[in-house]
């Protein structure tokens, strides 16, 4: 197995819980309470600034231009199509952007900041791989349902499925697979811990979204 496959296998329980979650099942079926989706999007949008900073730092630490270009292209997509989706979806659901982060949101924001400030390419990649691969894993199997859903559900699926997004995940995984082979055991242990923490926090975020975040109005 590749390094990223091994990392995923080591946290299989949390990974499977996050990628086959009641929240995303209801989202794909079109039965998700709009109030729950509104709270989820308000909280998820609070990740964008930290995610952009983390991705930009990862691009800056890429070993070559060839390694950096796909990340830079993905950065443009986050700042373009995905950012626009959030604004349109929040407006359609009749809620503003949230100002206060829930505890689950704050925890993942802290993880992204810790990875960015570490200056370590492998730790930045560990968080990015989890954040994007988990979404591909739940969204890809339900991509064919997206067109029948309201755009604020359907576009959230299509943003995280299809060949372009799968290519982003393959790129991030490939970068982590490559750099992991160069690490000593201490640094590999740091990657494993960061990866596991990220997966646990993704699961906790979906759990909180299913319970229902407070919706700012």
Describe this structure in words.
By secondary structure, the chain is mainly alpha-helical. The chain has one domain (3-211): Up-down Bundle (Heme Oxygenase, Chain A). It has 11 helices and no strands. The chain has helices at 3-9, 12-19, 22-29, 34-45, 47-61, 65-92, 103-118, 121-139, 151-158, 162-180, 185-211. The mean pLDDT is 97.
Radius of gyration, whole Å: 17 Å
Detail the poorly predicted runs: none
> Major sheet, described briefly?
none
Please identify the structural class as seen in this structure. mainly alpha
User: Overall mean pLDDT score?
Assistant: 97
What name goes with the CATH superfamily?
A: Heme oxygenase-like
Reported CATH architecture:
Up-down Bundle
Overall morphology: globular
How many individual domains? 1
Helix content: over 70%
Q: Termini, distance in Å?
A: 47 Å
CATH topology: Heme Oxygenase, Chain A
Q: H/E series, N to C? A: HHHHHHHHHHH
Count of runs of 4 or more consecutive helical residues = 11
Question: Which helices and strands appear, and what pairs or packs with what?
Answer:
Elements: H1 3-9, H2 12-19, H3 22-29, H4 34-45, H5 47-61, H6 65-92, H7 103-118, H8 121-139, H9 151-158, H10 162-180, H11 185-211
Helix pairs in contact: 2-11, 4-6, 4-11, 5-6, 5-7, 5-8, 6-9, 6-10, 7-8, 7-11, 8-10, 8-11
């Amino acid at each position: 197995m590749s390094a990223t496959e091994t990392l995923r296998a080591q946290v299989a329980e949390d990974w499977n819980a996050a990628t086959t979650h009641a929240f995303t099942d209801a989202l794909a079926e079109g039965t998700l309470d709009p109030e729950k989706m509104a709270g989820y999007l308000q909280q998820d949008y609070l990740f964008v600034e930290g995610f952009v900073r983390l991705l930009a730092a990862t691009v800056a630490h890429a070993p070559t231009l060839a390694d950096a270009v796909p990340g830079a292209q993905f950065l443009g997509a986050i700042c373009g199509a995905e950012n626009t989706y959030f604004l349109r979806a929040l407006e359609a659901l009749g809620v503003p952007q949230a100002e206060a982060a829930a505890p689950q949101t704050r925890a993942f924001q802290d993880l992204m900041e810790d990875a960015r400030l570490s200056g370590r390419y492998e730790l930045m990649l560990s968080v990015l791989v989890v954040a994007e691969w988990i979404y591909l894993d739940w969204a890809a199997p339900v991509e064919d349902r997206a067109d029948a859903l309201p755009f604020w559900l359907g576009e959230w699926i299509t943003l995280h499925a299809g060949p372009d997004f799968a290519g982003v995940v393959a790129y991030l995984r490939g970068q982590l697979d490559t750099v992991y082979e160069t690490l000593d055991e201490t640094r590999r242990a740091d990657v494993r811990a960061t990866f596991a923490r990220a997966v646990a926090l993704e699961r906790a975020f979906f759990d909180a979204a299913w319970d229902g975040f407070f919706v700012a109005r």
